[in-house]
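Input set for joint prediction.
Command: fold jointly, output tokens.
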Amino acid sequence: MAVLEWDGVDAKAVDTARILAADAVEKVGNGHPGTAMSLAPAAYLLFQKVMRRDPRDQDWLGRDRFILSAGHSSLTQYVQLYLGGYGLELDDLKALRTWGSKTPGHPEYGHTDGVEITTGPLGQGLASSVGFAYAARYERGLFDPEAPQGESPFDHFVYVIASDGDIEEGITSEASSLAGHQQLGNLVVIYDANQISIEDDTDVAFTEDVAARYEAYHWHVQTVDWKKTGDYVEDVQELFDAIEAAKAETTKPSLIVLKTIIGWPSPTKQNTGKIHGSALGGDELAGVKKVLGFDPEKTFEVSDEVIERTRGAVERGEADRAEWQKSFDAWAEANPERKQLLDRLLTGELPEGVEDALPVFEANTVVSTRKASGKVLSALGEVVPELWGGSADLAESNNTTIEGATSFIPASRSTEMWTGDPYGRVLHFGIREHAMGAILNGIVLHGPTRAFGGTFLIFSDYMRPAVRIAALMQIPSIYVWTHDSVALGEDGPTHQPIEQLSTLRAIPNLAVVRPGDANEVSYAWLEILKRRGGPAGIALTRQDIPVFERGDGDASGDTFASAKNVAKGAYVLAESPTGTTDVIFLATGSELQIAVDARSTLAEEGIGARVVSVPSLEWFEEQDEAYRESVLPSSVTARVSIEAGLALSWRHIVGDAGRSVSIEHFGASADYKTLFKKFGMTTEAAVAAAKESLGH
Amino acid sequence: MAVLEWDGVDAKAVDTARILAADAVEKVGNGHPGTAMSLAPAAYLLFQKVMRRDPRDQDWLGRDRFILSAGHSSLTQYVQLYLGGYGLELDDLKALRTWGSKTPGHPEYGHTDGVEITTGPLGQGLASSVGFAYAARYERGLFDPEAPQGESPFDHFVYVIASDGDIEEGITSEASSLAGHQQLGNLVVIYDANQISIEDDTDVAFTEDVAARYEAYHWHVQTVDWKKTGDYVEDVQELFDAIEAAKAETTKPSLIVLKTIIGWPSPTKQNTGKIHGSALGGDELAGVKKVLGFDPEKTFEVSDEVIERTRGAVERGEADRAEWQKSFDAWAEANPERKQLLDRLLTGELPEGVEDALPVFEANTVVSTRKASGKVLSALGEVVPELWGGSADLAESNNTTIEGATSFIPASRSTEMWTGDPYGRVLHFGIREHAMGAILNGIVLHGPTRAFGGTFLIFSDYMRPAVRIAALMQIPSIYVWTHDSVALGEDGPTHQPIEQLSTLRAIPNLAVVRPGDANEVSYAWLEILKRRGGPAGIALTRQDIPVFERGDGDASGDTFASAKNVAKGAYVLAESPTGTTDVIFLATGSELQIAVDARSTLAEEGIGARVVSVPSLEWFEEQDEAYRESVLPSSVTARVSIEAGLALSWRHIVGDAGRSVSIEHFGASADYKTLFKKFGMTTEAAVAAAKESLGH
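tokens >
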């Protein structure tokens, strides 16, 4: 068992961390000093004594991961990144929460070196940490499954600091239940039970027995109570021992309930809601400095011995890294094919020839896009080992199961229907959409695999905060959202998306992809996997829809365009059959067939309609102006969008002269054909809208 | 203790319920028969032997409430509503899941008599049941606080049937923690632990110890295991006894873990995922009928003795009702003022003179709209006793505390800052936005009080499914969403709403209200309280903004319009100062001042700009055509919307010639003035947009 070396310089470094946090908030005049002050010993312990990290290489595969789920206490992390030499300097701390600084209000992934994940919205960090731990196991399974536990270069720990708020949010209940179920021995959570939130003493709203609750999830739970003697004693050794015990428990995730006093040792504001989210004020801050033996006249004071000691992390990191490199090199030599796979994954490239693996769906048949998607996933699964995923208890409905694959659960969790394998690739989230979103984020943040999670489109609402934070981080989480309109039918309005397509498109950086037939599904998946710059959701039908007969290139004459054009976001599926483009239909998903039918009907009346398939508005907006103009010539102002949901997304495209065939109210329970008729999602409505738009 | 009377006719009635459920699904060809079959004894027990309800009066104040959180098993409820004589007949069951029927896929509030709440999205029902129990206590506090427990006409129980999926969803974790905290002795939850969901055996994703978890929340937990002997024995007496014990435990909510076999006694499909969500098929259904002694050739078979027995519920309900009426009348006589209050609440009217209570904010000062809102709530609180609410741990930030009020928690839960009172009116949700939304729904469904809950606007995403279902039910839940733009400043992009205003407006039936100064806040609240036809969210600034100097009526000359116009959703705040209306600014919230400034700047250049304040697009759309045309004359196509968020909501109003001053990307961490400048939320940008729109 590891021995903790701790002396007066360490203690002073911890106090320095407190002072820096309080000074930084004081300087900018706002922020969250309290937790950063009282968590300084725990954070210092992790960064300086526990975690294996190389401050100079934030991408080192073998590093322990650190997640500050209590993102409001960003200084807890920034101060350690400064002390440990991760690239932050005192000037960065002084620039806290100001425009362009590396120290924004909450830690931002991709913005500050050493930050593994953007946190702040409570619960997201802790829930995503479960995804980090999933990914560590799945990657180990890809690269080094035979190594004994703890002896692979792919083995490491995931450490989390969580707050009362994290524990209260429902998303962590979902994710924590899964973590216990998955027996994630590589996950160690320090829960800062300071019992103070913005409304002061959490007893006003939060009196459950957290330790018992986590035991019920099958976690390993320890309590470290720094208040237990009546005095407040930051017993670092006790916390260190608990962390070591947590690491030693390899069959369960660990929760360490750390009982702290927020804002300690602030003379009058410790243990109050006031110190959670406001600057201390000059007198109080001076008081803290006096208590800790710092000069109240000085700010941002760091002694040489402290910084010298803490920057030792760089050298230690190099040494750890060098030692790890040996084991990695030995692995690489022994596993040349796996090394090749890892190298490919790290470049972000798909395997060569992946396009050849895509299924081709026969024209003039009918198939739901969800079923087509299931076939595509199974086909891709054979050639893309980094692809894994599953569903929030809707596998059969979402068609998210890669054929022949085992389930990513311990073998002991096997059921009659599913075979468990700790390195399996079928994910079972249970009925926990929000945790699913956060876990997907954790997986793709942890490493280069590609993970997807499915539910009904309506339940994208349940996972929306996780989707948004993926978009903010610009990470490539993938969502499979089936039953994508009122055409899901009899389940009725509680299950029928109306505003979801529009409101998801409203999230910046999120690509919403709604393929219009089975062959569009193939190329939609290919394009989604090619991209790594942000999350994507694929919206799929429950009902069967036609597979269009297509040519190999662009639309021309009576020949429909190839589905390869999906990658451009929107393309001319069918040219006007009359020689002139009088009106343009823009349609997605199951409504594309309505546009195609309306085009034929109008042609009989001598009206020339072009049909533009729009699988993704976001991808289309990335195309150059010339291409966009070629698809939607500005001279053609008669335009009709057709989508079984709000017109909201389409108004800027169809313009004042345009019309939208849409649904602007909640759905109803009936078979889908009745609903489409009652709600005006028909060829007749499309034809009428076209004529209205043309001023006929 | 009550004695259960149960004979062969009851047993046959239960079997009839099973058969009716299976027949109904078979007829339409889709639906969820399995749970309705195995839950038939529990549902029958509740409806026929436990609950105090009057099938002929679904609005009886004293009724026990029933919530089918497992909404997909709607037949569990429909069959009992038929058997008990609540208005459904066999033809309704035969019309299951078809257009216009009273028996849609999931139970819909306001659509089918006897349905207390729309359920289906998992977790919502159970979480809202906590709100029902809150409301029962608060209403008791308003009308009959002195009565000993169990002796008031306002005392009754809330019964819930929940499924595995309900227990897995995070929202129920949040709500259940609150229920234990609140010691809700009037809440009884039967958890149908059948261990089968769509992915078959729930062991694949759900192995936590639910009983221990609920004990950790301080619930009273019992287990009734009908599988415990190895055979499956539906021991109704055991369940009845557990319900009686749950009722007897008045200081804790109760969870009864009922271990059932889904789809029992289906010969080959019981205990499988297949029977969860699909019709049994002819042979299997015939097999069930044979096992139960029914004629496999017949469908929807109900014997006379069964229907005679079950319709006895009507008579029993009348008798219970009559007995209750005595105690109610005695209460009314003894409490004339309280009776008057109840009468007023039941009409849905506000007290007379409530407008006089509204605070008036002095012109030419500055105040944030959240602070103004806090003052309005405290002022209204004095005259509107049915108004109560609080925050998800952001009371001070959301300004949601009615001054001088006690907190709605048991006295034993008091903290230094808050005084607990079981009948208090300040709600503390903890950091649980989703449960807050569901609890608010439960409160307003239960009775005529008006409840509000606050969080940051960004966290409306966390509560969105609860908001949507309120909109679907058209019930008047109220949300206080502060920190309503990037102008919240330093907390950065994780906390800054960008797409939220637009995406909330996209929810049908939800009113989003964003007042443009403090006096608009007063009238916004008044209008919100006047309305009961759907939920409303009020979006409020963190930062101080100017209070405009206004006249008493419409805008005229240089005089700004009265804030009373807020009720119309949009109104002319300031007429063009040049005599001609060249361009129209539409603005909301903190951006209204930008429009006002831009109007002045343009006037100097001889351009006449009208400023339209748009506190609520939804309210504006309800106005007649003439009024809307008077505010936004179609002849004026030069229009500029100004809102610190997406332009999405505004495109249909500003049109092709219009422009939007908006923010189309995520925010950043800095002070708000810097952000507004960097993101182009400025007078200069508004002026430039106006000129562009004018084609200058």
